[in-house]
């Protein structure tokens, strides 16, 4: 190769890399997806786009996060079925296996009325289903429930709603899948069992207590939001229920909301609606439950960079940031979906657009907290390491550096992005990415 060829070759390679990064597409707005933080990757599984349940899998690598306006989306291997209104959790023993539990599975838009648990190995992007021992055949497939996995790899399911029928019943049983033995159990509990419910949200305290917040029950066949003064605690050690009465500020009962546990033991609740109808926003959008004194409060927060009111969105805690994604815009009276990401800094109590907050020095130790955190649609631990090495990892920092250095050439190359013919031709030359 002469120098000229080398230069051409260099820019051609650069071109391909930039196409790979910039032109690979962004997910459409959606809701009712499942979401989990796996290491630094924030995954989204399935969901609904308008009326279509989808099987897409997308993720954002938060270690490369620049800003909410320049999201570097990556698609991963799709699910074998369309999937919505279920929840995902990450195995805390390997920090890489994701279980999608409950939910609606669609295949060409028909319900698959199964109780399948879909398993995603995030290390090699492989999907599988579980072989469960002692599966309770009287367990009825269900959706609209949160899942919690504890430190020992036991998955806890509480409540949810039967699939298919219009006025389907809600459940109030606890089912447990031990992922270390693949044994299923349905404990018989008679004391303090909460009323049946769906679209509730849950977090796990480090003590092994699951806190269930909100959701709806059926009153004369009508969805009725459960009061947020009623907090249900399930002890995963003794398999027993306790009810707490939460005081403080008055917060609308709601469904389709999210909760996360932050470092000081407070729970941050976001979004949700007071009923199933469009436009039925629950107020306020953001509230805090202090689990030491069981009181709700409504913090005063600037609306700068804040999300719209959302229902059936996702929320995870990454370091000390609550990341809110997708969802239905609750106030809209025609179905309107959100495709954006919003970030709440849970130390400074401010909505931000990047992950570069300055932590006041007095609270700088909080990032070492190891409490397990779960949300309506996901489970996450506060791990920030466990970087999965996979062939489609791209060093964005390097590429952006290169493209800036390449200056006008880079801009010229980027302008090709809109030209489909080039895109198609060039993508064929790039290394195959799962999901494309
Ligand atoms: C998984 O994450 C937890 C919490 O950060 C950590 O203690 C544990 O060592 C990790 N396990 C593996 C196998 O990476
Ligand atoms: C199976 O589930 C039903 C309903 O929740 C329960 O009554 C029954 O005890 C369970 N059976 C076993 C073997 O756990």
From TrEMBL:
Keywords of this entry: Kelch repeat, Membrane, Repeat, Transmembrane, Transmembrane helix
Record flagged with keyword Lipid metabolism: no
Transmembrane segments: 7-27, 396-419
PANTHER family: ACYL-COA-BINDING DOMAIN-CONTAINING PROTEIN 5 (PTHR46093), FIBRONECTIN TYPE-III DOMAIN-CONTAINING PROTEIN (PTHR46093:SF18)
Protein name as annotated: Kelch repeat protein
Organism expressing this protein natively: Gigaspora margarita
């Amino acid at each position: 190769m002469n120098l000229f060829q080398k230069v051409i070759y260099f820019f051609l390679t650069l071109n391909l890399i930039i196409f790979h990064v910039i032109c690979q597409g962004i997910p459409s707005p959606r809701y009712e997806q499942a979401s989990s933080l796996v290491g630094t990757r924030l995954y989204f599984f399935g969901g609904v786009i308008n009326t279509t349940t989808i099987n897409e899998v997308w993720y954002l690598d938060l270690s490369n996060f620049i800003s909410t306006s320049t999201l570097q989306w990556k698609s991963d291997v799709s699910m074998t079925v369309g999937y919505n209104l279920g929840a995902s959790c990450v195995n805390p023993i390997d920090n890489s296996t994701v279980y999608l539990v409950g939910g609606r599975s669609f295949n060409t838009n028909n319900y698959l009325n199964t109780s399948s648990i879909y398993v995603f190995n995030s290390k090699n992007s492989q999907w599988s289903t579980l072989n469960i021992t002692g599966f309770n055949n009287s367990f009825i497939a269900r959706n609209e429930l949160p899942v919690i996995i504890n430190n020992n790899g036991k998955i806890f399911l509480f409540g949810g709603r039967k699939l298919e029928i219009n006025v389907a019943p809600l459940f109030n049983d606890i089912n447990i899948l031990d992922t270390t033995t693949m044994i299923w159990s349905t404990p018989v509990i008679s004391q303090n069992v909460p009323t049946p419910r769906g679209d509730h949200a849950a977090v796990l305290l480090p003590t092994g207590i699951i806190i269930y917040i909100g959701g709806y029950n059926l009153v004369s066949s009508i969805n009725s939001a459960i009061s947020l003064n009623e907090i249900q605690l399930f002890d995963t050690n003794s398999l027993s229920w306790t009810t707490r009465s939460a005081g403080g500020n008055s917060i609308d009962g709601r469904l389709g909301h999210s909760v996360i546990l932050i470092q000081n033991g407070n729970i941050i609740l976001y979004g949700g609606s007071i009923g199933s109808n469009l436009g039925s926003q629950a107020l306020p959008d953001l509230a805090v439950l202090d689990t030491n004194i069981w009181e709700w409060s409504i913090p005063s927060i600037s609306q700068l960079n804040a999300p719209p009111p959302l229902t059936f969105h996702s929320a995870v805690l990454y370091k000390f940031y609550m990341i809110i994604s997708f969802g239905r815009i609750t106030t809209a009276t025609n179905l309107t979906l959100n495709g954006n990401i919003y970030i709440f800094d849970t130390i400074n109590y401010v909505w931000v657009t990047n992950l570069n907050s300055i932590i006041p020095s007095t609270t700088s130790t909080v990032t070492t907290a190891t409490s397990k955190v779960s949300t309506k649609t996901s489970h996450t631990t506060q791990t920030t390491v466990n970087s999965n090495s996979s062939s489609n990892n791209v060093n964005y920092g390097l590429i952006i550096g290169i493209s800036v250095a390449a200056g006008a050439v880079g801009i010229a190359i980027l302008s090709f992005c809109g030209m489909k013919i080039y895109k198609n031709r060039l993508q064929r030359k790039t290394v195959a990415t799962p999901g494309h």
